[in-house]
């Protein structure tokens, strides 16, 4: 056990909140007050420094945490404590957020402090022992949904629930499980009591009762055991959890007090704040660094891009002295056996590598050398190759004694060696979970770790016994066979030279050279300069946007189009099956019809091709596909040739535009009719509710009361005498007797007012009912709307065709000029810039932006799709070329992937003077944030595409509730789709197989057999045009299935293969079995994005193949899928018992001879009732009206669409407005 000589702590307590919807927490101040005393006590915590900070804003919290962890050294213990509100966000993948003083309840993800940020700072912290204590609600969910480097630990908390924080090398104590509240202490007159969890911690340390082994030391593990046991004994409503991944040594946090337990100074209402209680203002030096410039930010991104694509390769053994050197003596760089300055002398042989490092190569140390002689793919021209098993980044530093070597960052498994031996999936898991078990200079412990890793993970022998304290001076290749040699190496990794990366770096250089012009572009939205970030005036008024929508377009999509045509930067969230490509095609048409130049981009060719093909089908040449040399010579050349020969339009632009104007007015009129209908129905319902309320007050039925109070005279008289004093009681009783109304205990004045109120409601009821019944019925409304939408699409297609043909016809010289320029040597940028006037629409991948000259505002609009998978630097050149931009993504689908380590990114950040909390505030950190995150933060919101059309309602409902918080409207039409009659949409095939790892990645041959059997059954049962897919988390499983699949009709691949695709039936092979490592199962379990993508590829059926018993014992997505496979479908609309009773009574009266059934499913969609009569069934949808802030016209459109979706053709579906429930 190695004990740091110094202990430091940061205690944060957030008591007060600007948003009144967060209740104040006086106990937070008591928590930090009491905990600080025991940590500072000389015989208990003996902490060198304890800083308290209270009521911090999100910016201040990030600043304090960054400063504290950055300042911790390699011989210190760091303790971070937070008391306050906390929550998990479904829309952020379940990620935990700390609530700050200025957090907005409606925008928590944007205004709170994310667990991912804290986790990142912990990983970068140099302290060898780190402890985090969280006293917040749902704090057990601290790291749910974080990036892959934060996968959950293999162990389980003593509560019986898996601890959900996974910061490697950090011991975390959380006050409650992921779904539980934590309880504050009482706010007493003499002062606030501490929170329940913190109180137990403080008392355990203060009294010394936590001590176990008689040494007087208190470990964090002992502390958790004691507090957990105490809270369970006290029947606490919250159960603490802990995580200790990568912590295999005792962390001593305190000692038992000597003598009697010390008494703590009580916190009273008059007690002054502890020293350091207020968050300090940054010094002028730090303030300057906190306001970076474009050169700072672009240099940081250049460093990250270069390092991200640079990966340590397998090395040639004969390259000694050029790309690597062997070290002798004892291994010091990985083992941490360093001098006081955290460096080691530079070995003489390492001078051979200095030139390579000076030219930009990275320097790494590694041990032990693993030689691979057996596989031909690891040999190069007969020369054996090797790679160190473990590696660590190193840099040259200079001091008065000369050059020295300083290691930094974590010890990591060599990525390419891991993929070679384990396969991509297991290599990824190992990279996420590996943590060294030795402390500085523990060579024997290091040797044990190396042996275990070789035997258990790599299944490789130790050709030479690991002895890191006595290295071999060369790599032994004379001994035959693969395996580890007792050799440590220092090696260089040249910076990557991929063509796409070179182009991106050149573009970033160009952007920096033209930084003064950024303010006119969409890139200004991400500017480090607050003034430049300020949103400029709209490009045009909303009412001046003429929508051109040749494809179906709903209201959320229209909102995105209007925003993209008016705002500098617009962000849209597009969950699976919500019509993203449809939206893009309509936006392209709208922009081109407005005379604008448009560029569509995405991270991959498939996504770009999908939009291009849609646009091409609408109007050939409306988008030209270009990019790489292949696309440039094929797709671009063909499109330009076709456009150079295009004929003039049959309808000129002016006429086509007027036709669209008329069609838009017709559509607006149809929607206005919907709006009037809904508003009248709402008023009618209000009148119906008021009639019943007044009738109940008078203890009379509504119909009888309506017959009794027959005219205004009675009502007016009743209202007039309700407050009369002269003979008032006698007059009131006489009136009530005359109309037959009994006098209740409420008295005659109340009865008269009820009579008057009833009559007003009755008059309103009659008037609104007459107006509604005289107006168009649902069929007429739906027909008018459908006709108007068709007219809008047709007129839009005509206008787009006219615009494209006219532009091409008028610009033939420009088009032929570009064709000629492409056949000549040199750049064709000048011709490209000119041709945009004739050919305004283009499509490329993000890394092909350099097909176009890097001029600011080259395009009026740039549309970037799949931005959640896109790194921030990739979109900067695109935004620079744009006046306005639309960013589309979905954080719940596949994230952007980076191999850059946290410590290396932190090095680049510090070198460029950037602060971690600043990058976090604006979501600009390279590792943590995608392009979508950065854009969403810049705009402050994302517009949701919330109408889903792809998956069977049961499948879509699962994804909707699990990943989108129930925010989607499911409008899938299952009629006519290939399907298995009588079978559920979600099916589970129970296979209790064995998971094996013969060549690295995992395979379950029993599941492979079941998948083949299921696929063959589907091929025999479904129509010939049905599409089938097989998806799995593991590449080896996909390969095994593919090798046994006898037809190419079934597409097989990993989840990444299917991103953006869909199949009628998807078979999902989970692979996991009891023979699989627990850590690997947890890795599968917590890849939420992969689960979402896999599930939402299925249109009609999702067949899950897996061990039901294994997954049933666990929580998570798989267990929920198993439950879904056993349910009867998406029945139920959340109706109240009163609504259901009224519905049943109403339908029974309307259909006296029919069988009424409530809460069923029709065509996969839930219906409120099914009326069966004469062999026919009629689905009934109860329409309670739109939400309070909802659009009435859109609400009725959706209800009419749902009415159509549940119509099975045997009986017309029926929408029942809620006012009908109040008819007498």
UniProtKB/TrEMBL annotation:
Any one GO MF annotation of this record: 5'-3' DNA helicase activity
UniProt domain Caspase family p20: residue ranges: 5-138
Top-level taxon of the source organism: Bacteria
Biased segments, Polar residues type: 280-290
Any GO BP: proteolysis
Keywords, comma-separated and alphabetical: ATP-binding, Helicase, Hydrolase, Nucleotide-binding
Annotated family: Belongs to the DNA2/NAM7 helicase family.
Name by which UniProt lists this protein: Caspase family p20 domain-containing protein
SUPFAM superfamilies assigned to the protein according to its UniProt record, in alphabetical order: Caspase-like (SSF52129), P-loop containing nucleoside triphosphate hydrolases (SSF52540)
Residue numbers spanned by region Disordered: 268-290
Species, as recorded: Actinomadura rubrisoli
Pfam families: AAA_11, AAA_12, Peptidase_C14
Key word Nucleotide-binding present: yes
InterPro entries per record: Caspase-like_dom_sf, Coronavir_polyprotein_1ab, DNA2/NAM7-like_C, DNA2/NAM7_AAA_11, P-loop_NTPase, Pept_C14_caspase, Pept_C14_p20, SF1_C_Upf1
């Amino acid at each position: 056990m190695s004990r740091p000589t110094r202990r430091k702590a940061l205690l944060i307590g957030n008591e007060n909140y600007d948003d009144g919807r967060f209740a104040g927490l006086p106990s937070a101040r008591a928590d930090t007050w009491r905990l600080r005393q025991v940590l500072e006590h000389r015989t208990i915590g003996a902490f060198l420094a304890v800083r308290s900070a209270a009521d911090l804003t999100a910016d201040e919290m990030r600043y304090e945490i960054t400063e504290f962890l950055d300042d911790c050294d390699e011989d210190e213990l760091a303790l971070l404590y937070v008391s306050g509100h906390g929550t998990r966000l479904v829309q952020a993948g379940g990620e935990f957020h700390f609530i700050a003083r200025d957090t907005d309840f409606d925008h928590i993800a944007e205004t709170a402090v994310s667990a991912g940020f804290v986790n990142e700072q912990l990983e970068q912290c140099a302290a060898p022992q780190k402890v985090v204590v969280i006293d917040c609600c749902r704090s057990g969910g601290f790291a749910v949904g974080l990036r892959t480097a934060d996968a959950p630990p293999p162990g389980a908390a003593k509560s019986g629930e898996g601890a959900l924080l996974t910061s490697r090398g950090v011991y975390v104590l959380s006050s409650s499980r992921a779904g539980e509240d934590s309880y504050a202490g009482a706010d007493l007159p003499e002062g606030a009591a501490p929170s329940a969890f913190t109180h137990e911690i403080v008392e355990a340390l203060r009294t010394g009762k936590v001590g176990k082994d008689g040494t007087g030391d208190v470990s964090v593990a002992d502390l958790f055991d004691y507090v957990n046991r105490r809270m369970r004994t006290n029947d606490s409503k919250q159960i603490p959890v802990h995580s200790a991944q990568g912590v295999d040594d005792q962390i001593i946090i305190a000692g038992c007090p000597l003598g009697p337990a010390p008494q703590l100074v009580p916190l009273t209402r008059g007690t002054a704040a502890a020293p350091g209680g207020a968050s300090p203002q940054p010094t002028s030096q730090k303030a300057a660094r906190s306001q970076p410039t474009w050169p700072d930010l672009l240099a940081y991104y250049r460093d990250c891009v270069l390092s991200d694509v640079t990966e340590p390769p397998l090395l040639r053994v004969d390259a000694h002295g050029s790309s690597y050197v062997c070290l002798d003596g004892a291994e010091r760089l990985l083992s941490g056996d360093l001098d006081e300055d955290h460096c080691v002398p530079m070995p003489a042989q390492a001078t051979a590598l200095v030139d390579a490092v000076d030219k930009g190569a990275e320097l790494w140390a590694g041990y032990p050398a693993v030689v691979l002689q057996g596989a031909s793919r690891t040999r190069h021209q007969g020369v054996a190759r090797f790679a160190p098993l473990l590696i660590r980044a190193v840099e040259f530093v200079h001091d008065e004694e000369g050059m020295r070597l300083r290691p930094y960052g974590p010890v990591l498994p060599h990525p390419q060696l891991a993929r070679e031996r384990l396969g991509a999936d297991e290599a990824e898991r190992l990279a996420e979970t590996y943590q060294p078990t030795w402390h500085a200079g523990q060579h024997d412990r290091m040797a044990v770790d190396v042996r275990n890793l070789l035997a258990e993970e790599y299944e490789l022998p130790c050709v030479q016994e690991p002895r890191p304290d006595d290295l071999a001076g060369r790599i032994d290749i004379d001994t035959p066979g693969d395996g580890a040699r007792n050799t440590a190496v220092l090696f260089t990794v040249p910076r990557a030279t991929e063509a796409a990366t070179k182009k991106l770096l050149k573009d970033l250089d160009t952007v920096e050279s033209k930084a003064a012009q950024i303010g006119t572009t969409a890139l200004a939205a991400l500017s480090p300069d607050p003034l430049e970030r300020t949103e400029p005036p709209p490009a045009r008024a909303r009412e001046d946007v003429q929508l051109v929508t040749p494809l179906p377009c709903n209201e959320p999509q229209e909102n995105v189009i209007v925003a993209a045509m008016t705002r500098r930067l617009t962000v849209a969230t597009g969950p699976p099956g919500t019509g993203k490509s449809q939206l893009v095609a309509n936006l392209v048409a709208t922009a081109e019809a407005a005379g604008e130049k448009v560029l569509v981009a995405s991270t991959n060719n498939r996504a770009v091709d999908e939009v291009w093909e849609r646009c091409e089908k609408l109007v050939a040449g409306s988008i030209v596909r270009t990019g790489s040399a292949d696309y440039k010579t094929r797709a671009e050349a063909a499109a330009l040739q076709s456009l150079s020969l295009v004929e003039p339009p049959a309808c000129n632009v002016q006429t086509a535009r007027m036709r669209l104007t008329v069609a838009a007015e017709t559509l607006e009129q149809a929607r206005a009719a919907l709006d009037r209908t809904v508003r009248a129905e709402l008023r009618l319902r209000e009148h119906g509710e008021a009639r019943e309320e007044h009738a109940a007050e008078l203890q009379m039925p509504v119909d009888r009361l309506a017959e009794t109070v027959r005219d205004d005279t009675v009502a007016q008289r009743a209202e007039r005498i309700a407050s009369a004093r002269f003979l008032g009681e006698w007059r009131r009783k006489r009136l009530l007797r005359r109309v037959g109304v009994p006098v209740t205990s409420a008295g005659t004045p109340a009865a008269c007012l009820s009579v008057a109120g009833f009559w007003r409601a009755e008059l309103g009821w009659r008037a609104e009912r007459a107006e509604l019944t005289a107006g168009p019925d649902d069929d007429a409304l739906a027909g008018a709307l459908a006709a108007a939408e068709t007219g809008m699409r047709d007129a839009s297609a005509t206008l787009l065709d006219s615009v494209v043909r006219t532009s091409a016809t008028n610009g033939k010289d420009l088009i032929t000029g570009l064709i000629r320029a492409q056949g000549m040597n040199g750049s064709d940028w000048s011709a490209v810039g000119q041709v945009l006037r004739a050919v305004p629409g283009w499509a490329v991948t993000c890394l092909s932006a350099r097909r176009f000259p890097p001029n600011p505002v080259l395009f009026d609009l740039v549309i970037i799709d799949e931005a959640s998978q896109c790194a921030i630097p990739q979109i900067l050149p695109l935004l620079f070329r744009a006046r306005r931009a639309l960013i589309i993504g979905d954080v719940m689908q596949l994230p952007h992937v980076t191999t850059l380590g946290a410590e290396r990114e932190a090095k680049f950040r510090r070198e460029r003077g950037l602060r971690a909390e600043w990058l976090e505030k604006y979501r600009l950190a390279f590792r943590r944030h995608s392009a979508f995150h950065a854009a969403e933060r810049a705009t402050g919101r994302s517009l949701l595409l919330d109408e889903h059309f792809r998956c069977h309602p049961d499948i879509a409902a699962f994804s909707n509730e699990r990943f989108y918080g129930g925010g989607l409207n499911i409008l899938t039409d299952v009629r006519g789709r290939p399907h298995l009659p009588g079978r559920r949409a979600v099916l589970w095939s129970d296979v209790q197989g064995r998971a094996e790892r013969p060549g690295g990645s995992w395979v379950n041959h029993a599941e492979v057999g079941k998948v083949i059997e299921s696929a063959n059954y589907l091929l025999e049962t479904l129509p010939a045009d049905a599409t089938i897919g097989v998806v799995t988390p593991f590449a080896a499983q996909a390969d095994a299935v593919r090798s046994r699949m006898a037809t190419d009709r079934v597409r097989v691949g990993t989840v990444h293969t299917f991103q953006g695709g869909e199949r009628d039936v998807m078979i999902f092979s989970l692979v996991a079995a009891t023979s699989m490592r627990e850590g690997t199962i947890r890795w599968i379990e917590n890849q939420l994005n992969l689960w979402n993508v896999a599930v939402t590829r299925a249109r009609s059926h999702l067949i899950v193949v897996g061990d039901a018993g294994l997954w049933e014992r666990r929580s998570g997505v798989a267990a929920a899928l198993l439950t879904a496979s056993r349910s009867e479908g998406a029945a139920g609309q959340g109706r109240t018992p009163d609504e259901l009773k009224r519905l049943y009574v109403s339908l029974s009266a309307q259909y006296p001879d029919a069988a009424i059934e409530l809460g069923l499913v029709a065509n996969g969609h839930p219906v409120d009732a099914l009326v069966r009569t004469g062999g026919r069934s009629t689905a009934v949808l109860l329409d309670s009206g739109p939400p309070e802030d909802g659009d009435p016209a859109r609400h009725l459109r959706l209800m009419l669409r749902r009415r159509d979706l549940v119509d099975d053709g045997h009986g017309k579906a029926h929408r029942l407005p809620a006012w009908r429930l109040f008819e007498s």
